[in-house]
Amino acid sequence: MKKILVVSTTGMGDSLWGTPALRALKKSFPEAEIHFLVNSHWKTLFVGNPNIDRVIDYSPKWFHQPSIGLKLLANRYDHVLIFHANKDITRLLPWLRCHSLLAHQTSAWIPEKNRVRIDTLVHGIQRRLTLISKIGVNSDGGQMEIFFNTTDLKDANQFLEQKSLSPQNYIYINIGASGAHRRWPEDRFFELAEKILAETNYKIILGGGPAEKQHIFEMREKLDPERCQDSIGVPLKPDSCIIRQARLLITCDTGPMHIGFALKVPTVALFGPYDPRGTGPFDLKNNHCFMLHPTVKGDFSPDTDFGGGDLKKIGVQRVWDKVQEALAHSPEGLSP
Questions:
Q1: Separation of CA 284 from chain center
Q2: Which CATH superfamily is domain 150-329 in?
Q3: pTM
Q4: What would be one Gene Ontology cellular-component term for the protein (predicted)?
């Protein structure tokens, strides 16, 4: 085994789900070069991962793809493993020189002969582990990973120092999401932030993407400026390190939630339209994830019928109750 290409060109969470399988690949084939084709937006999350020998930037735009194709064409791969991709990847398939190509998705653009069928509902991490088992790789557990270098740590700590924050004395609230159907209303995030500031001694960092920038600025104007900051403009890797040092992460089912899971940050996670059995925590202790779903009032179980869920049906009081539960029962205790 000389070279393996892993393709994961969609969302942040989709890509982080691949890290347990990447670890298992490297453990099984330590001499093989592992190349990882990933969306350029998330590339920094995988730089420095000791299980990846080369990170290759991906862009779905057609005019960027010939240069990507040339990079791939320069290699001959024993296996190409498609962890997750959209149809735009098909423009690059003719550039691949490989002995075998395998994928677990059932999309029409994947030839039937290349599909590994998984007919039951399983977590995205397990789907990737099942895929690599077809080339003789055993699982090495399902814990996701992000690796930081000294610059990442320095940048994060510098941010905290400038904002008069210290590790474990703040709650990170991510108000963003990859789509409106995954986003809890901003006014409820604001009400929750007010309650946290009024009822606890914790400070708050508000996070989100470009689409949430204005909402975050408006929220900060109405909240205590001494106790509420934002991470707008902080690059993804240092921002992940800031999340890593939070006492608690509050987020919807979106990319930063998976960052929290990868770093074992106690997380209050709000799920809506997607079944948490497929997208939620995997191989995590209960005191690292505290889940909420519009249609599930009690504890989650493997037999829970989630159905579709509208995040607007989750009220502020339910989330606040879950925040208090998380602070009381997650590793660091109740007070800063």
A1: 14
A2: Glycogen Phosphorylase B; (3.40.50.2000)
A3: 0.95
A4: cytosol
